[in-house]
Write a structure and sequence with these properties.
- The protein is α+β, with helices and mostly antiparallel strands.
- It is 31% helix and 34% strand.
- It contains eight helices and twelve strands.
- 37% of the residues are buried.
Length: 325
Amino acid sequence: MEIVAVDGQDAEVFGRFYEVKYGVRRELEFPVGMGADEARVLMTSQHAEARADGIGAVVDGVWVGVAWFDWWLVGSTETVDVEIAVIPQWRRRGVGSRLLEVAIERTHKAGRRVLSGSDLTGDPVTGESPGTAFARAGGFVRKHAELHQVLELPTVIAEKPVAGYEIVQWREHTPAEWIEQFADLQTGMSEDVPAGERTTATVHWTPELIRDAEARRLAQGRFTYVTAAIHSATGELAAYTQMGGTPETPGRLSQYDTYVRRSHRGHGLGLAVKAPNLRALQAGVARPAVLHTWNAPENAPMIAVNSKLGFRPVAQRTSWELPVS
């Protein structure tokens, strides 16, 4: 078995790598993940938040398994995230274990102390799947779980404005007048998002990081819809939500962050920003699609908001960690 490094520079090599990675995800009822072009941009370009690369397991010229790595450059810089995928006919033949060995070696060599990964395929109630069995066998410890919910579009949207707040919307670029406060809200999101026992660190967002993320999304071909709530009396940015996708995968859309500033919670602002953002996204896309979101079970208020909008649970994503030093 040959282990091949993948950095995205060779289009043919990356194509074979990606076909295994996303081919495995196609086994899901509702596949998720980046399109090939989107993923390759992430690998081949420099970004302020993270860098990505991968490895492939090749037997007699056949790509039988891959591992994708996310190396965080802000926030959780002690961890590296890995996604391991093996084609069906080569499972339980040591391919995943060999890829895991190399992943541990690379993590240790890079001076990072935690290898983390997520299983996307867990039962929505129990969280169990072949992926969780593989993680346990490899010495990983379960650290957190999130409920995967989907909303099939088009749908009927009932908006519910909140008195004392006005709604503003933008697309790919945050307006300069809001970018400082938007950075503050995104930092709050990083601090407050439920993470269970995962090894995490706050990402302190700045206008520069926001602009870098916006440029990366544009390079990847992504489109983004943002809706925010402004407190009328103070002019404070109180809440925001982001949704988007890419023409490369037209049937798959993502709900990104939704966050309400602590001092403005309890007024229904989650629904107040998500509903008009969904309306704008649905009008802009104007085709059948599936919108995906993940939330921790302990984030019951946000799951309730999603349920009001029509989301339903389809799987559980579990997070696992393995100390490497």
